[in-house]
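Chapter review. Work through the record for Guanine deaminase before attempting the end-of-chapter questions.
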Amino acid sequence: MAELLLGQVISFAGDPFVEGEAAARHESHGAVLVKDGRIADVGPAGRLRAAHPQAPVTDYGRALISAGFVDAHVHYPQTAIIASWGKRLIDWLNSYTFPEEMRFADPAYAAEIANRYFDLTLSHGTTTVCSYATIHPCSVEAFFTAAEARGLRAYAGKTCMDRNAPEGLRDTAQSAYDDSKRLLEAWHGRGRLNYVITPRFSPTSTPEQLAALGALWREHPDCLMQTHLSEQLDEIDWVQGLHPQSRDYLDTYETQGLLREGAIYGHAIHLTKREKDRLAEAGASLIHCPTSNTFIGSGLFDMGLATSLRVGLATDTGGGSSFSMLHTMAAAYEVGQLRGHALHPAQLWWLATQGSARALHAESRIGNIAPGMEADLVVIDLASTPAIEQATRRAGDIWQALFPTIMMGDDRAIRDVRIAGKPVAQSSSSQPSG
Ligand code: GUN
Ligand code: ZN
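Structure tokens for Guanine deaminase:
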């Protein structure tokens, strides 16, 4: 069954970090034809209405239709501890994160938080996430069950840790391999779900565990592998002490078979020249988590890397301080300013959609509006609050009209969300803006 959505439409024909704003396409009176869960056509409203006169129409007026946001690095189990005060990475993990993750031994708690998490992210316009679970297999099952019930394209894996974590939050090299393999075989490629091999980071995995997960990845090369890299200076010193034989942090992964295309490294702030060169040569993805990097005090990501590597954008819930990819774009802009890069709104929007999708090797399916792509869409109200509305009155083009929403918008700007073409049923935690 087809449906014609009318509004302003934004999409990408290229990479704005390479081609500048010319990579973006904007139809100010545009239309998207959705059919059988996919985008069937996109273009000027007049042409699509004439070509598809039978299709029912939903007219969003001056609102902006975009691909839904793709959040490329999150920890859904940290939903309830978001915005916890006063710690840096290692203390933050020990004080807030690990006690909360312990609770996911209970499948009912895992299901409650997974459902709460997806209600929150959908109300913020995020249609795909790539998440860490906890060490508990039931936390992966809860995530995929909640994603599947909503029809989402979703990515996650069991977080593996066999040292430097409390009793009750440690597995072993063998059990991490066995549990990950069983979960991968059960969930990977089931509908729109994808299993991601997930060693947490080198401080909490022995070389034996990293090697076991490297072996699993070799056996399942079409999976992604995600972990953390060079987030804080204290962490890097710790890694050097734990792995004295390694050339650098990246080497702790590289020597265990955990560096190649499909490797996704969160944060990646404090990199050496060798690491940057090797990451680019290997075709790895880096995920910029700007609200987290300022909130936990980690540092400023170098967006110059976006021309040589796949770079995605993420909230890093709950080290990040927001579920909103609009807030995350705003933080990426501010971090860019501090590093001397004024990111163009087209670059910010691309990072939150097609850039993140490309980091997850899903750019031909999600993160853009083009025929054949999955119809996961967000509709943005460009005047969602009085403060934003007054700032857009003199806008001369779409970027001037959009930038106040990027900088000041939140879930009130999310007018509608479509998953595989269908409107998302609003739950109690959503706040439709009418
Ligand atoms: N490094 C290892 N685990 C984590 C985590 O849960 N959050 C963040 N921000 N960094 C990490
Ligand atoms: Zn993380």
